[in-house]
Amino acid sequence: MTPTGKSIHINPRVLEAQYAVRGLIPMRADEIKNELTTPEGKGKYPFSSLVYCNIGNPQALDQKPLTFFRQVMALVDAPFLLENEKVVSQFPEDAVARAKEYLGHIGNRTGAYTDSAGYAFARDIVARHINERDRNVKPLEDASSIVLTDGASTGVRLLLQVLVGGASDGVMIPIPQYPLYTAQISLLGGTPAMYYLEESERWALNVAELNSVYDDCVKKHNATPRVLVVINPGNPTGGVLERGVMEEVAKFCCDRGVVLMADEVYQENIYAEERRFVSFREVVLGLPAPYNTDTMLVSLHSTSKGIIGECGRRGGYFSMTNLPSLLREQVMKMCSINLCSNVNGQLMTALMCSPPRSGDASYESYWSEYNSIFSSLKKRALMLAKELNTIRGFECQPVEGAMYAFAQIRLPEKYMRRNDELNAQEGRKLSADARWALELLESTGIVIVPGSGFGQRPNTMHFRTTILPPEQQMERMVQSLRSFQEGIWEKYV
Amino acid sequence: MTPTGKSIHINPRVLEAQYAVRGLIPMRADEIKNELTTPEGKGKYPFSSLVYCNIGNPQALDQKPLTFFRQVMALVDAPFLLENEKVVSQFPEDAVARAKEYLGHIGNRTGAYTDSAGYAFARDIVARHINERDRNVKPLEDASSIVLTDGASTGVRLLLQVLVGGASDGVMIPIPQYPLYTAQISLLGGTPAMYYLEESERWALNVAELNSVYDDCVKKHNATPRVLVVINPGNPTGGVLERGVMEEVAKFCCDRGVVLMADEVYQENIYAEERRFVSFREVVLGLPAPYNTDTMLVSLHSTSKGIIGECGRRGGYFSMTNLPSLLREQVMKMCSINLCSNVNGQLMTALMCSPPRSGDASYESYWSEYNSIFSSLKKRALMLAKELNTIRGFECQPVEGAMYAFAQIRLPEKYMRRNDELNAQEGRKLSADARWALELLESTGIVIVPGSGFGQRPNTMHFRTTILPPEQQMERMVQSLRSFQEGIWEKYV
């Protein structure tokens, strides 16, 4: 109701949309965090601080930014510093040269709107990076298929908006998925068509399943799938796809005329020795005709993840492969309505795609910082999965990549019945894993996201935690999870 | 068609959306700009460079950024500089102090995602600024009604998305309007309900018209207006509303249960001596009960305009007044799906709302830069309207505020008929003002936007130009417009 007593109208699609990564549990966490700052709140919980493991936000958990990138950013933000020899002398030569190079391209105008798709020079850098990354395929001739975005999320939103007009349009998404996808599908009124990943096979993608999900979507839901979303490395699963599977996925998309949306924001986050990142672009262009020319692909990347971890910059890009020109035109028109992505994010994207090279003044320090972050992430990824598997009722696949463990939880029957009873008393419909996550939070200060926020097979429960807490906090987290979960098994059996 | 010959499906709402500010004319301008860099292109046009007057992008037209803001931004981007005495000594004390203050609030984490609505400290600064700006009304107690955004555009998009679910939801917009509004209405499938501004009265808003447009929307289009958009100072019109009119507008919204969306991004851009900016918040809260508590208001602001002109930062905010809690919750959920706005934009917004104060080291230099930009804008605003009124067939209202002149054009009958003939030959449906703008571009290099991109009364034609070209370029622009337009009157009469 409005203040005047009139009923307030809200877009029903908005009412429907959910985003668990910042949903019930993190919101309760923020309440507790505020309580902890008050005199009454201090003694109320058996902990004095929270460990936020709900969101992949590395620098919030003390990961240091890469120095070279910040040096360039500072000089580009304040070009007059380049005229001050006392300041310039405190920066490495290559940072100064890089700042001058960027400013030269943009005529000192970091305060101006850029082209709708981003600065041409920054898109060129991205295109060169893609050409170096992808092996044995036709290089991009120019940057016309690259669009710079405010993080990958705005790219996902824009592309889905162009492709999905309503309930007759399906979007195939993995389960579990990153909840941005279901949220955007709700907002667009599209039809989600969910395909399950195979948990027992390190969350592998089952191509046979794609065909049956496609057919079901058409027959049972009267919706034609327009997009297939693949997240590789997987969020929340941590799985990394094999090339053979990727080829089958691409062929499926080509045969069905579905756009393949490859969320590749974790492309630098691969920890398993036997895995390496292969982009869908490399896979598609490496297929025989007609697949190499007819598979429609959009690939997304971001400055928020990887080793750079610059979430706050909201930098990122998507690249378009084999899209028909009408579709590209509409994508570009949508970019123009949004004016442009933010300049600092654009610059950070360019930097991510062109780190210092051998011989540059910052080469060694850059790679030393980079490798130290990478090896620590790798250590935590391996350690976390291993430790979780020693806790009663937990089962966790190896964290091959990305920034998360997605562990299965089993809970005593009695705990499940208690949840039903509590829900009846409280008049709400908390899933058992959400109740579990809430009680974990309130008794330990650990903030994770229940599996129901990502989707999971019926009658299974999971939780997602990031691998990002520094090693000491990680120990507290594992210990808290252990005593909480084992306490439940003691109490409710 | 897709490469495989399958028909490609595109969201029909996307196909429908138009955005003239970066539409046909600016796209043709970019083509010409590229041609001019080639040997063949050089002699092809009677000019060697373009003057972009299509978009309010001050720094692209050589407006200097405000130094203090950039100093703080550089230090916050590279916090390690604060530990280097040689660097610190080159910055004014207050820039160093400000950077330390901001970094203290955010724990050095400018690379992290922020709270969904933006950093609490930055929102507090915005709230204090609003409390200083708005006179004789109840102050904001905290920043819970402030949301930081990537420019005002993302705020408009988010708010309209929450309020407009489909064709049964109307959005009342002024004609002429900023085409972001019609684009977003198309994308949401809402029903536009257009009210005309009174050109001959300096583009005044006619409140009687609001009621009849509301009723028509309900009766003729089966849609209930949910939002009334008011742009003040006006884009593209340059008009500034009087307080009495604003009070009537607020009462209308309250009586009808419509959310008042106040686009106040030009609040610092008022040039007419007899006008000053009054915010809709001040007006609403200053009304007697029940209007002061029951008028639902959202107000938008941006770092892109004003004197700061930091378009590329994509900074901005909206504030919510008297919104019911369900609506606020849904707004906040939508923010969380978008993660957060970019940190540099958030910091720029905080800076815009808290410039150096009397006694600060940068106080005098800041205000000297500020006043010099302001007085040059004012000079150009007055000069441009005056000059345009000396050209045959042009009529331009005073540019009281904002960054644009929106002039009416009259063209000879013969020119109009020629457009019909050319359209028939070319198989397209260019409006006469679009044809005129295209020919202006191709013969003079001046890039403006035809009135049809903003909406105008039937049988009238206009064009919008920014007042932003530096004074010398402005002379070229006026001269080009004059000889082009007078040439048409000579040739086609």
UniProtKB/TrEMBL annotation, chains A, B:
Residues 93-481 form the Aminotransferase class I/classII large domain. SUPFAM superfamilies: PLP-dependent transferases. Coiled coil: none annotated. Homodimer. Its cofactor is pyridoxal 5'-phosphate. One of its GO terms (biological process) is L-alanine catabolic process. This is Alanine aminotransferase. Keywords: Aminotransferase, Pyridoxal phosphate, Transferase. Belongs to the class-I pyridoxal-phosphate-dependent aminotransferase family. Alanine aminotransferase subfamily. GO terms for molecular function: L-alanine:2-oxoglutarate aminotransferase activity; pyridoxal phosphate binding. Pfam families: Aminotran_1_2.
